[in-house]
Specification:
- The chain has helices at about 5-25, 30, 35-60, 70-95.
- It is an all-alpha fold.
Length: about 100
Amino acid sequence: MSLKEQIISILFSIIYGIVIYFIYRKTYNLIHYYKKIYAIFNSFLFTIDVILIYFIIFLNINDGIINYIFIIITFLTFLVLNKIYLQKKCKTMSNRL
């Protein structure tokens, strides 16, 4: 894998983590607040969709070569954004009390 492909892959992983975070925030109610069987089904479908889209795009970027670093970068981007959002939410909730 060339250096150009690695840089594109890292940038894509960061951007994909951000996009998945925003999609997750918008669909949070569908995933968590309905009946248990629907929540499990929706979570499963959301996860499968996210993974398939990720692999299809990587297939186009660098012939499907996925390094574990790219997956870690995507996951950490999602977690950091989620933590920042939760901290803001908790801060506004404590200000209301």
